């Protein structure tokens, strides 16, 4: 489970030492609160525990970012940001896992956090806004900007082109 937790933490922070610290803190929280774990609801205790631990790890990362260096902007979405459309990307399936993670890690902490929470963790904008103490509009705006910046980063670090349907 250590490797699993490291992968999650490393999506949120840029330094290996920070990720290791967050993993350790997550394990401490897991062991302190293991009595609250309810495995009676389902037959697959291991999957339940892994899901519960994932939530602990993600919340630990969010708490760390909130305390240390994440300065969230809680302004509402500006009209030009809403005009960014999600487009189909040609060649994305050719990108390696490592290339995608490196591109995500180049995003600013704010954009990276919102992107991870929405795209990877599957939270709604309402849940992200509550977790990070920002407005729903700011969450949507940050996600849109993250996607836009991610496209630019991927185009700069690769020779892949992005297909824009006519």
Automatic annotation (TrEMBL):
Ranges of residues in domain RNA polymerase sigma-70 region: 6-68
Domain RNA polymerase sigma factor 70 region 4 type as annotated: residue spans: 98-147
Keywords of the record: Sigma factor, Transcription, Transcription regulation
Top-level taxon of the source organism: Bacteria
Gene Ontology molecular function: DNA binding; sigma factor activity
InterPro entries in alphabetical order: RNA_pol_sigma-70-like, RNA_pol_sigma-70_dom, RNA_pol_sigma70_r2, RNA_pol_sigma70_r4_t2, RNA_pol_sigma_r2, RNA_pol_sigma_r3/r4-like, WH-like_DNA-bd_sf
One Gene Ontology term from the biological process aspect of the record: DNA-templated transcription initiation
Classification via SUPFAM superfamilies: Sigma2 domain of RNA polymerase sigma factors, Sigma3 and sigma4 domains of RNA polymerase sigma factors
Family: Belongs to the sigma-70 factor family. ECF subfamily.
UniProt name for this protein: RNA polymerase sigma-70 factor, ECF subfamily
Organism of this sequence: Hydrobacter penzbergensis
């Amino acid at each position: 489970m250590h490797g699993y937790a490291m992968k999650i933490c490393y999506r949120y922070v840029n330094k290996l030492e920070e990720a290791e610290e967050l993993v350790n803190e997550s394990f401490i929280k897991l062991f302190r609160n293991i009595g609250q774990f309810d495995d009676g609801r389902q037959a697959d205790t291991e999957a339940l525990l892994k899901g519960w631990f994932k939530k602990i790890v993600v919340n630990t990362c969010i708490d760390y970012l909130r305390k240390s260096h994440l300065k969230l902007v809680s302004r509402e979405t500006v009209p030009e940001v809403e005009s960014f459309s999600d487009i189909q990307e040609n060649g994305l399936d050719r990108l390696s896992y490592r290339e995608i993670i490196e591109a995500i890690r180049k995003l600013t902490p704010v954009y990276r956090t919102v992107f991870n929470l929405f795209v990877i963790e599957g939270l709604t904008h309402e849940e992200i806004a509550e977790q990070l103490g920002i407005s729903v509009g700011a969450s949507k705006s940050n996600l849109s900007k993250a996607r836009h910046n991610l496209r630019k980063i991927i185009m700069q670090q690769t020779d892949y082109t992005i297909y824009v349907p006519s």
